[in-house]
Design brief:
303 residues; alpha+beta; Beta-lactamase; 5-stranded antiparallel β-sheet; 47% helix; binds 6-diazenyl-5-OXO-L-norleucine
């Protein structure tokens, strides 16, 4: 398949849409991003890597980190996590508090903020350093030791993280945190504040296209676990827009408010697009348009 040509097609589609939404400003350190900046990269299971636009430029990965923290917990700790967090789409915004009270501190899924806080807690217990283990995984899979946590973004998240603090305290009040709220939030903000490029993320997400096998050939997840992570990505990875995303794109994916979207073509490749302006659900307008154009032009999707 002529991937470079299809990536250029996707970039043209993205340029028509990019910049139409709004850059996330509830984390002030993200507010200065250029709304219509764009990049896209594809990493195949056979080792090809292609990119267009600013595909080597690092950006704040934000909630895309939740995919990696979940995979690391499942790899280290098995299925025990699923007694503490559900697997159903929420239908509510990613930072919503409402379901948590009705559902007694068990978050609906691992990708909304409440669920990711529980995953981070579990990863902290399993590894002693949740954010470093996410960082180490990204560096290893991408081969890029320059990937790092942006301390200004982490500090900005902490200073304005009242909703996440509320979620974490509420979860703790139901006995669903093992570590202190302070430690869990610090680790959660740190892994959300990792800066990485489309190329880095496509390489780091490739284990989900390879049915759970890492870049060095070692198995991280069983193929069944990789299938399950992809299923939760499809149903929950783009929050209350997951239905619309599945309809338009037809791939499992995880978005972040830094404007990145990492999508998986099982058995074939991982694809990451980035453009900072977001729609109302918090998904990048340009990145979703690009990935939609790619799957439409290539005919590659899970459906
Ligand atoms: O906790 C937050 O709100 C951010 N660190 C991450 C949110 C996010 O990326 C949601 N994605 N669309």
């Amino acid at each position: 398949m002529n991937y470079p040509e299809f990536l250029r097609t996707a970039m043209v589609a993205a340029h028509r849409e990019a910049g139409k939404g709004h850059v996330a400003d509830y984390i002030p350190a993200l507010a200065g991003a250029v709304p219509d900046a764009f990049g896209m990269a594809l990493a195949t299971v056979d080792g090809e890597l292609h990119g267009v636009g600013n595909w080597k430029e690092p950006f704040s990965i934000q909630s895309i980190s939740k995919l990696f923290s979940l995979a690391l917990v499942l790899a280290e700790g098995g299925n025990a996590l699923w007694t503490r967090v559900g697997r159903e789409p929420s239908g509510t915004p990613f930072n919503s508090l409402v379901q948590l009270e009705a559902e007694r501190g068990i978050p609906r899924n691992p990708f909304i903020n409440a669920g990711a806080v529980v995953v981070t807690d579990r990863l902290q217990t399993l590894t002693g350093d949740a954010s470093r283990s996410v960082l180490g995984f990204l560096r290893a899979e991408s081969g890029n030791p320059g990937i790092s946590i942006d301390p200004a973004v982490a500090a900005s998240e902490a200073a304005h993280g009242h909703r996440n603090a509320a979620l974490a305290h509420f979860i703790a009040s139901h006995g669903n945190l093992d570590n202190t709220v302070a430690v869990v939030l610090e680790e959660y903000f740190a892994h959300c504040s990792i800066s990485a490029s489309c190329g880095d993320l496509a390489l780091a997400g490739r284990f989900l296209a390879s049915h759970g096998v890492r870049a060095d050939g070692t198995r991280m997840l069983s193929s069944t676990e990789a299938k399950r992570v992809n299923a939760v990505l499809l149903t929950c990875g783009t929050y209350d827009a997951a239905g619309e995303f599945a309809y338009r794109v037809g791939l499992p994916a995880k978005s972040g408010v830094g404007g990145g979207v990492l999508a998986i073509l099982p058995g074939r490749a991982a694809l990451c697009a980035w453009s900072p302006a977001l729609d109302r659900a918090g998904n990048s307008v340009g990145a979703v348009a690009a990935i939609e154009a790619f799957t439409t032009a290539t005919g590659l999707s899970i459906f």
